[in-house]
Amino acid sequence: MMLFLTIAVAALAVLLFTAGGTAACAQEELRLPIVMYHDLTSNPLEQDDYTLSLEQLEQALIAFEEHGFTAVSLSSVLRYVLDGGALPEKPVLLVFDDGYHSFFTGALPLLQRHRVPAVVSVIGREAEKASHETCASFMSWTELKQAVNCGLVELISHSADLHVYCRRSGLARLSCESEAEYERVVLEDLQRMADLCEAAGVELQPAFAYPYGSLEPLAEPLLKRQGMLATLTSEEHVNCLTRDAECLFLMGRLNRSGFLTTEEVLRWMECQN
């Protein structure tokens, strides 16, 4: 009986997961799945919800191409929406959150081997710390610049100091916080990130990935006001691109867990209306 229930629950989870990828795109709209990665490992025993093996990553890169998907840059997505640029028939955007050092040592060589572009969302505080440490868990500013210089990697902001579980989770607003106080916190963090990047000589694309996916209605107008042209959430839905700039905000992404198979990811990406 317990075995039957376990199988039934697993089947339901897969069904719900697949359904979550459905995006009711109109005929004139272009579907854009965004796959989100975090840490990487060469040891399959270390795989978890936020850690993928390098073997799994390479399998996915090969499978995406075999199923007709073309990895695209964020800048090409912005040009498509804002300037009437072109995109392939089945684009996919690959985003590596947090800027783990394993991206530099593991993912980047695979991206170069397969000529696949990707985005890294950078936590300013971690890149700054890594620039003054040895054996850091995150990429330093120098390593981030080296990744960009290979011609396949673009960088976006994942906040300077707000990617931390403390009183506040990401950009979530505290219950005791006024709108003015909240605005000051967000604007100060955006300025801090700009200052860190300027000092390091690093250029970011005008996009923001919400830390922990924590959404706050007050944040979107602030980010737009500061020049952000796109925002990325952790909500697992496929995006519908149009020529309207608003389609670039609150874009959904699939968290590529180490427990997901490449076939499950492809089903999510290809889920039809």
Structure summarized in a few sentences:
The chain has 273 residues and is of the alpha/beta class.
Describe the 3D structure.
This protein is an alpha/beta fold. It has one domain (29-268): TIM Barrel (Alpha-Beta Barrel). The chain contains nine helices and twelve strands. Strand 6, helix 4 (101-114) and strand 7 form a beta-alpha-beta unit. Helix 2 runs parallel beside helix 4. The relative contact order is 0.19.
Based on the model shown, name its key terms.
273 residues; alpha/beta; TIM Barrel; 6-stranded parallel beta sheet; two-stranded antiparallel sheet; globular; disordered N terminus
Write the layout of secondary structure elements.
Layout: H1 2-20, E1 30-32, E2 34-37, E3 39-41, E4 51-53, H2 54-66, E5 70-71, H3 74-83, E6 91-98, H4 101-114, E7 118-122, H5 124-130, H6 141-149, E8 153-157, H7 179-200, E9 207-209, H8 219-225, E10 230-232, E11 239-241, E12 254-255, H9 262-270
Parallel strand pairs: 2-6, 2-12, 3-4, 5-6, 6-7, 7-8, 9-10
Antiparallel strand pairs: 1-11
Q: Approximately how much beta-strand content do the residues carry?
A: 15-25%
Biggest sheet overview: 6 strands, parallel
| Named CATH architecture | Alpha-Beta Barrel
Low-confidence stretches: 1-20
Helix count from the secondary structure assignment: 9
Rg: 19 Å
Task: Please trace the helix and strand order, writing H or E for each element.
Answer: HEEEEHEHEHEHHEHEHEEEH
Q: Please report the total strand number as a whole number.
A: 12
Helix content: 40-55%
Overall tally of structural domains: 1
> Whole-number average pLDDT?
90
Which fold does the CATH topology refer to?
A: TIM Barrel
CATH C-level label: Alpha Beta
Overall form? globular
The CATH homologous superfamily corresponds to: Glycoside hydrolase/deacetylase
N-to-C CA distance: 36 Å
Query: Helix/strand-derived class?
Result: alpha/beta
